[in-house]
Design a protein that fits this description.
Elements: E1 2-9, E2 13-20, E3 23-31, E4 39-47, E5 54-59, E6 69-72, E7 84-87, E8 89-91, E9 94-96, H1 98-108, E10 114-119
Parallel strand pairs: 1-10, 6-7
Antiparallel strand pairs: 1-2, 2-3, 3-7, 4-5, 4-10, 5-6, 8-9
Amino acid sequence: MLTLVRYTRTETAILGSLYLNGAFVCYTLENAAKAIPFGMYAVQNSKSPKFKRELPLLHNALVPASRGIRIHVGNTVASSSGCVLVGMGRNGDRLTESTPAETMVTMICRNESNLVIVDNYKHGMTDK
């Protein structure tokens, strides 16, 4: 089971970590203004029309597949229109080594069909 734990929320960014069966996989970054709600999501790899490559697609009853929420490369919230960005490293609210993280997560999602997003924000951070 894939689990995304969101642990810090600022006015612009949501920082988290992605785990597979409890083991750390990579860091995550989301645009706070466009982030999808916490909960259970189906994960289905498919070719992204925008990125022209296979990427994980997230969807559930509240977030339809047609919305196009993907897990993909990106270093800052400016790269996310609601998608989950991934990176092997993090420097503040910036991800690093995003391409190898995307490759690894895409490969993992060939065998995983569910993702749980958990909001576990640090004390004092905003949760809008």
